[in-house]
Design brief:
Helices cover 73% and strands 1% of the residues. By secondary structure, the chain is mostly helical. It has one domain. A two-stranded parallel ribbon has the order 1-2. The protein is globular and about 60 Å long.
Length: 416
């Protein structure tokens, strides 16, 4: 091959940034709860899981404000969006590599993922386990105690990039290691990356494989859920927790979109690109937030994943997309979205503990003060993420070139 292939999808960086901000909003409210500030998390939690069947019903009864479910669910939606986006992009790139080189270099794929993910992941791990616990400004009541009680077990899971398994085992107090609990989703993605290139390399019928593997996984999840509901046990609880977080099916849905786009299935793309479908996909997300019955909440992510895929495919590949996301600022912010995601919890905890030390009243972070808190956290996180990208992550990203046959992302955009 004389020239490396190039794949660039405009708008994806902006989508990454918005998904990261969504996670930040929810985690601010969660940490306000842990650190004793008035928050939106507690009321939503009680209502979402046991008092009313839907958020809309609770709103009608005056138990919730309309924005409560939105704030509560932004984080899970943002993470699920990341999963769909990862599945879409990785699958498309694997298709392109297989076409250009007649194979998929599995070892090179793993090395590219290692160079992009592992340096920051392990830096955050070191900070979370060994550095930040030494400072009161990073203390999180409940979570800090849980980490002390299960320090070595948590460390082993995180070191093996199984933070989602640590979550599943130690679910008390949110199951999180203080300041770095959000990294559970990195474990899910890395586990997906282990299997997915192997599947796509050796199959001649990718659509069949994607559909069958997704169906088998969903059936297995359903069986475990039914078993747990009929006869709960600690073992089933761990398995259930692990499977609930491991939304591989969301990544597979992203892969499905990559298949339709790469192989130019125009009859499917015409539906996805239809303006009415675009509008429907955007409106479906808030509808799910307010009207999903709690009995079906574990499956609602499948529908939201399909909506996210329509949004991703239109913004990235449809010239007539109703929504266009471009511009240097959004592109730059999206480029550091991984750092934003990995550092934001540290920033939230630091700022809230600092406010506590300053004797800020527990009910002072509402209204305009709450908005200022959001902006302050996001701004400081962006600064830290940019420094991290420039002086740490970029060194490893440049090393990826030696193992890359399909240039993508920022490197590909420079030559557009």
């Amino acid at each position: 091959m004389k020239k490396d292939a190039r794949v660039y999808f405009p708008g994806l960086n902006a989508l990454r940034f918005f998904a990261a901000v969504a996670v930040i909003v929810t985690h601010i409210e969660l940490m306000k709860k842990y650190l004793g500030f008035t928050n939106l998390w507690s009321d939503i939690w009680d209502t979402r899981y046991g008092i009313r069947s839907t958020a809309f019903e609770a709103i009608q009864l005056g138990q919730l404000k309309w924005f409560h479910p939105l704030v509560f669910e932004l984080g899970p939606l943002g993470v699920n969006f990341f999963f769909v986006l990862s599945g879409f992009l990785i699958t498309y790139l694997l298709f392109e590599e297989k076409k250009k080189t007649k194979t998929v270099r599995i070892s090179h794929f793993y090395l590219r993922r290692i160079l992009r993910i592992w340096p920051l992941y392990y830096l955050v791990l070191i900070l979370g386990f060994f550095v930040l616990p030494q400072f009161d400004l990073f203390h999180v009541p409940g979570q800090t105690i849980a980490l002390t009680d299960h320090f070595w077990e948590n460390l082993l899971c995180y070191a093996l990039i199984l933070p989602n398994l640590a979550f599943a085992f130690f679910s008390e107090n949110g199951g999180a290691v203080p300041n770095i609990g959000q990294s559970w989703s990195i474990g899910v993605e890395e586990q997906f990356y282990i299997l997915w290139p192997l599947i796509l390399k050796y199959t001649k019928k990718p659509l069949t494989v994607i559909l069958v593997s997704t169906l088998v996984l969903l059936i297995f999840k359903f069986i475990v859920l039914v078993m747990f509901e009929s006869e709960p046990s600690q073992t089933l609880m761990v398995i259930k927790n692990f499977l609930v977080m491991s939304k591989i099916e969301s990544m597979a849905i992203g892969g499905l979109g990559a298949y339709f786009l790469y192989y130019k299935k125009n009859y499917v793309l015409s539906v996805i690109y239809n303006p009415l479908m675009q509008v429907f996909s955007f409106l479906l997300i808030p509808f799910l937030l307010f009207f999903t019955h709690r009995m079906y909440q574990d499956g609602a992510h499948l529908i939201s994943s399909a909506s996210f895929l329509v949004i991703i495919m239109n913004i990235s590949s449809n010239e007539n997309s109703l929504v266009k996301l471009s511009g240097k600022v959004l592109h730059a912010l999206g480029k550091i979205s991984y750092g934003i995601y990995m550092y934001h919890m540290m920033v939230i905890v630091f700022i809230l503990n600092l406010l506590k030390q300053m004797k800020v009243p527990h009910d002072a972070l509402e209204g305009i003060n709450g908005v200022l808190l959001y902006f302050g956290v996001i701004a400081l996180t962006i600064i830290i993420a940019q420094l991290s990208y420039t002086y740490f992550e970029a060194y490893f990203i440049r090393k990826k070139a030696a193992f890359t046959k399909v240039i993508s992302g920022d490197a590909a955009s420079k030559n557009k």
